[in-house]
Amino acid sequence: MNLKQELQTLNDKLDKFRRKLAAAEQRGDATVIMQFKKEIATVTKRIASVKGQQSRELSKEGVALKAMGFKRVLTKAEQADMGKLNKSVKGLVVVHPLTALGREMGIKEVTGFAPAKF
Q1: Per the confidence metrics, is the pTM higher than 0.85?
Q2: Residue 1 in this model has a pLDDT that exceeds 80
């Protein structure tokens, strides 16, 4: 399971545990309340761990892209015909500023990274 899916399932579990905790608090069931508080704590800790792992992977990927030989901002015409651009430039990686990788790298415009000049 990839990190995105794992994070989603953990968030689903956390939501379910919180709903069950609220129901147990309404009933006044002390043992069940303690159990769900422990479950919530462990799931929250695991979510933080997965988010940290995701951040490290994005950072590593950003460093690898910045190490490529050439980068430049793509024109609107190139963005419009991305298929043609990908066929003409071998090893091109396009990063959009609104993706997680783009935010991590701090880019402001659609940028292409390639091993050679294009």
Answers
A1: no
A2: no
